[in-house]
User: What shape does this take?
Amino acid sequence: MSQEKARIQLVEALRDGRIERREFLRGALGLGMSVGTIGLVLQACGSEEKPADAPPPAGHEGTGPGPAPAPEPELGPIEADLHIYMWSDYIAEDTIPNFEKEFNVKVTLDTYESNEEMIAKVQTGAAGYDLVCPSGYAVSVLRHLHLVEQLVKKHIPNYANLAPLFLGSVFDPKNEVTVPWQWGVTGVAYRKDLLGKVPDSWALFQDAALKGKLTMMDDMRDNIGAWLRFLGKSVNSVDAADLAAAKAEALKAKPILASYVSAPVKAQLIAGDVFAAQLWNGDTMQAKVEKAEIEFALPKEGSSIWCDSMCIPKGAKNLRAAHEFLNYILRPEVGAKISDFTGYGSPNLPASEKMVNKVAYPTEADMKNLEYNEDLGAGTAAWDQIWTEIKSG
Amino acid sequence: MGKLPKWLLGVAAAVYLFLHAPLLVLVAFSFNDSKFSAGWEGFTLRWYERLLERDDLVHSLWVSVEVGVISTLISTLLGTMLALGIARHRFSGRTFLESLLYVPIVTPEIVVGISLLILFVFLKMTLGIGTIVIAHVAFNISFVTVVVRSRLEGMDRNLEEAALILGADEFTTFWKVTVPQLWPGILSGALLAFTMSFDDYVITSLVTGPGSSTLPIVVYSMVRKNVEPSINAISTIILVVTAALIWASDRLSQDKPLTPH
Amino acid sequence: MNPRLWWLRWSSRRPGARAWSLMGPGTAWIVAFFMVPLLFMLAYSFMPKGLYGGVESGFTFEHYVRLFDPLYIKIGVRTLVYSLGCTAICLVFGYPVAYVISRAGEWRNLLVFLVILPFWTSFLVRTFAMIFLMRDTGLINTVLLATGLRTEPLEMMNTPFAVMTGLVYGFLPFMVLPIYSSLEKLDPSLLEAAEVLGARPAARFVRVVLPLSMPGVVAGSLLVFIPALGSYLTSDLLGGAKEMMIGNLVQNQFMVANNWPFGSAASFTVMAMVLAAVFVSLRVRDEPAGEAR
Assistant: This one.
C-alpha cells in the first residue's frame, strides 16, 4: 500500500467517524514509521467498510516492509442466478439470452430511471442486485457510501479491451470498481430540414424567432451545465456568481422554450413539433433511425461528456456470475451489438471498431471542450436552489 | 323514474367522449406501422408480434395482476370493516380516527415510498412482491373506507331494523340485508383499489426487488426512452381482457340479485 | 355454545370491543405501514441533511423556516390554484355524469365500468395519448387544419390548459364514483313525494337530491383535491415542466437535491394543511348530522 493512499484512507476514515482520534494518532505516527503498520491499523479500524475480498494490490507488490499484500481472492464457481439493475433500453436484446445460454445462468433484469432511485435501493443493502449501472458522479456517491465491491480483475481478462481514454476516470482513478459501459455527450439534436441552419452555439435556445420550437433537458446538470459552458465556466462550478449568471441566461431562454424535456423529446423531433432540442448523441441517433433529417451538433462553447459504468454493489450474492457477465460484455462482438442498439459509443476499443454505426472517440481537441459531470457534493444545494428558481420563475 | 333532461345527457356524453378519446387513439395506433407513431403509416400487427418477444412486459403484467388481486382483496376486506366500524359505532376519538384515515390519501407518493423503504430495511425485509403488496394495501385501505363509508352514510337502516325485529340474528341481518345493500359501495371500493394498485409507479418503484417489476415500471421505462407502440398493443390487450372479465362477472352476478333495484 | 351467539353476547356487553374488532386490523395495518414510517420521516424533517440523502444527527427548524422563502410560497400558491380549479371542474362535470349513471337503470353497471375503464391503462400511456391528441401536429390540429376551421395550429401543449385537462382527466373518476355511490342509494320515493307535493325539477334537485348526495360530493372533492396537490408528472409531461408544483419540489428534494429533510418538511406542511381542512370539514359535516338524528 502506498503512503499516499494510506494517508487518504486515514483522512477519509476519520471524517466518516470510522476511527477514533486515538487511533488516528497511532496511524499518523505510523505514517512516519512504517507503511505496513498503518495498513494493519486501517484494516483493524475499517474492516467493516472494506469488502470481504481485499482490493487488488494495484502494482505495489512487494514494496516496503510489512505483511505481503493480500492476494486477489478466488471467487467460487459460477452461481445459478444473476440480478442486474440498470437504465432501461440500455442493452441489446440478445445480450442476456445469449449469456444465459452460454453460462447456464438465469438473469433477471430490472430497470430504473434515475441514479438516485438506484442509490436509494442499493443503500438499503436489501435490494439483492448483483450489478448496477451508475453514471460517473453516482459512482462517486456509491464509493463514498462504501456501497461497491472491488472487482477481481483476474476474472475479467477482457478488461484489457477498454480504451485508455475511459480508464482512470476521476470516479475510479485506479480502475478498481467500474467497468465502463457506454459513453456519450450532451449536445443539440435538430431537424436540418426545419431549422435551416447548423446550431453552433447554446445561444440557439435564446433565439426568439424559434419560440415554441425548441426544448432543453429537464435535468439540472445538463441544463445549467450548458449555460455555464456558454459563459465559459465549468459544468462543475459551484461558484455563486457563476450560477447566478447561468440562471440569468436560462431565464432568458425559458420563454422561448416549448418545454423542459429529456429523452421523450425524440417523438416530438420526429413529428416536427420541435425543431431543435438539447439531447444526448445516442438518443439522437435512435431518433435518426426513424427520421433521417435529424442531426446532432456540439455547440462551440463546449458541453459535458459522460460515461456510465457497471459496478457490483455491496452485498451482491452472485459475485462470480457478475464477473463472468462483465467479462462477457467486454467481448468485442457483444460490446459492438450493445452500442449499436443504444446509439452511444463503446468504451471498448475493439468493440467500437466492430460497430455498424461507428461513434468516433473524441479527439484531444474535442476533449478540451468536453467535461465530465462530477459529483457536486455540498454544492448540490446551491444548484438545486438555482434550478428551482429557474423552473418556477 | 323521471326522464333526464337532454342537456344533462349531452354533458355526460361529452365527458365519456373526453375519457375515451385517448383510448381510441391508443387502440388505433397499436396497429400503426411506425415506431414513433407520428402519423398513420399503414396497418400492421407487428407490435403484437413483438409482445411475444418481450418477456419482461408479459412477466411484469402477471406481477401486476398478482399484486393487484392480493392487495385489493386485503384492502377491500379491511377497508369495509373499518367503514362499518366507524359508521355504526360511536366511540371517543372517532373524528380523530377518520382524520387518520385521510393521512394515506394526503401523503405525497414519494414520501410514502421512501419512508416504507426505510421501514423495510429497518425490519430487514427482502424487497419483492410481498413488500409491494404491503405498500399497496397501506394506501388502498383508506380509499376503500372512504368510498364504502359514503355509501353507508345515511343508508336506509329500516331494512336492517325490520330484519332484527322479525327475528333474524345480527349475523344473518348483516349478510342478508346490510351486505347486499352495501355491495355497490364495496365493489366500487374494490375497483378503485385494484385500479390504483395496477397503476402505481412511484411507490412501487421504491419497494420493488429483483424480478418483481410491475407493468407500470416497465411501461414507464419504455415511455421515457422510446415511445414504442408495443405499449399501445399491450394496453389494448389489457383493455379488451378487462372489459371481457367485467362483462362476464356482471353476467354472473345478475343471476343472484345483489342490489335491490 | 354457538360461537356466533357467544360472540354476540360477549361483544354486546363491551360496546367498544365490537367496533374495534371491525376497525382493529385495518387500523393496525395503517399504523404499522403508514404511520410508523411517516413518524420516521417527521423526525427526519427536524434533522440536518446528509450529504447523499438521509440525515445527520441533530435538531433544527431550518427546513421549515426555509419554506417561507417567497420562492416556495409562490410554488405553493400555484399548486393550490391548480388543485382547486381541478376540483371545481371535476365537480361541474362529474356530478352530472354520476347523476345520469344513478338514473340509468340497467345501464348503470356498464356506465360505471366505462368511467373506470380508461384507468386500466397506465397513466403514462394515457398521458402520451393525450399529447398525441393535443400537440401541434396532433390529431385535433390535423383535423382543424384539414377542415379549414383554423389556418394555424391551435396551441394546446405546454399550456396551463393542457395541465388542467390532464389533471381533470386523471382525477375525474374519483369524483364520479363517490357521488354516484351516494346518489345510487337515494330513495326514489323521496323524489316522487317532492314531485307530488308540487316541487319543480330544479327545486327537487336543490332541496332533495343535492343535500342527500353531499357526503359523496365531500368525499369526491377531497379525493380529487388532495392527489391534485401532490401531482407532478402531469405538469411535467403536459405543461412542459415549466411551472414547478409542490409535487415536483418534493420529488426533486428526494431524487435530485439529496435533501431528504427539506423534502419531508415540505410534504408535512402540505399534509398538515390538508389534514386540518379534512378535520374541519368532518366536524362541520358531523355536527348537523348529529342534530338530525
Notes: Confidence is low (pLDDT under 50) at residues 289-293 of chain C. Residues 70-102 of chain C form the longest helix (33 residues). Chain C has one domain: 57-286.
